[in-house]
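PROTEIN ENTRY
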Amino acid sequence: MNLPVLPAKHANPAPLAFKVFTASKLDRIPQLEALAKDQRFAMRVVSSVLPFRVNQYVIDELIDWSRVPDDPLFQLTFPQRGMLSEAHFDRMASLLTRGADKAEIDAAATEIRAELNPHPAGQREHNVPMLDGQPLPGMQHKYRETVLFFPSQGQTCHSYCTFCFRWAQFIGDKSLKFASSDADQLTAYLVQHPEVTDVLITGGDPMVMNAHNIAHYVDALLAPELAHIQNIRIGSKSLTFWPHRFVTDRDADDVLRSFERAVKAGKHVAFMAHVNHWRELDTSICRRAIARIRSTGAVIRSQGPLLRHINDDPDVWSTMWREQVKVG
C-alpha cells in the first residue's frame, strides 16, 4: 500500500486503547454528571430495555458536551426517553424506582422487547437462502444480485446508534441472533447462484472482527469458482465511531491488506460507511482512516437515514455531502 503523505494536522496520533461503556457503567461517564437527575434516570430506564454501548473516542471527540442533551451526536449514541413508549417507559421506571431485583427487571425487559418487533419485515423468516434443502443461518438473499452475510464474530459495534433496527442482535438472546461463522456454506451457496454479483458483509459491524477473521471471509470470496462475484461491500460505522481500526489498532495494516488483496484480485471493494452527521468526519484520525482505506483501492461510499434531532436539517446534509466529496 502506498499511503499518501498528509498535512501535519492529519498525522498519525498515538495509539489509543479501545474503552467502552455499557448500561452497567453509565455512572462512570463523568460528563453525564452535568445532566439533570431525571435525564440520567431516563437513560437507566431505556438502557434496561434497549442495548447501550459507547466508546471513549465518541465521548471525547464527537460529542459537544456544551450542547447536551441537544447535541446530535449525543442524541445518536445515548439513550433517549422517546425510544420507548410511555407505557413501556413507565413500567420499567416503576421497577427501577422500587428497587426490583434483576430477575424481575430482566423479565419485564424481555416482555417489552417482544412487543417492539425485534426482527422487522420478517427478516428471520423471509429471504433465507436454502442449500441442499436446508436454510442457511446468518444469510439473506434479498435481491437477485445481492446476498447479505452476517459473520458471527461481527455481531456487535464499536458504539450503538439509538435508531438501530438490529438492536435484537445485541441483547444477549441467542434465539434472536442472526449470524453465521461458515464461510464454506457461503461459498457453496454462491457457486450455485451465478446470478449473484454482490456480497454485502454486514452486522453488527464486521470491523469489530480481528484481521484474521476479516481475511477469512473476504479471501473466501476470491476463489476462482466465484468469478461472478464482482462487488464486495462492507457495511460499517467504524470509520467514524472507531477510525483507529484503520490507523493505530495493532492489526490495522492487516485489515487494509485484506481490502487490497480483493482489489488486486479484480473485485470492486466498497466500504459502505454509515455517516449520520458531518461532525463525525471532522477529526484528524477519521481523515487519516479515509486516506488509508482509499490507498488500498477500495472505494468509500456513505449512507445514512434521515433522523429527527440528529440530521433533520438541509444544512447538515449539504455540509456533510461537501465534506464527503472533499475527503474523497
